[in-house]
Amino acid sequence: MKKRIFMYLFFFAVLFILFQYMNEKTIFESQEKKINSLTNQVAERDSINNVLNDKVMELDYFTLLGNENAMSYFDNMAMDAEEVQGLVSEAIYESNFGNEQNPLVPIESQDGKMRINKVRFLNHRWVLADFTDGTYWGEVLIDYFFDQENQLLLTPIGSTLYPN
Q1: In the 8-state DSSP scheme, what is residue 103?
Q2: Could you count the other beta carbons within 10 Å of the beta carbon of residue 131?
């Protein structure tokens, strides 16, 4: 009788160990799949982030604050590039105020006054500005320069009007 009890206990222990092994193996495999899936997602996101960072760096080159040569130009003049960007932007937006046509937009409006909406700095000399009168839209390339007295001079170089 004692012998049979030990034999049953032994078989029960073997079955229990076998059940635990199979259960843990299934859990391990499912966790391994989940880890591989998450690793692939992270790798995919990293590759997307790298591509986006490369694009941002490429687009940032044609900006005042992203171009080292443009920034060193203002450093040599003892001016801060961020302050220059703020001053020029403010001067361009201030040209919108007044009763007459905006002097920086060389295209006459037929439905009101042309106003500058957005400004994008290309480098230490040029600004690209978007303008509209509510009906017609266009862009103007503006040259900006500081003379010997550090007075800001704004000169429109060229413009384009989009067809309606």
Answers
A1: T
A2: 23
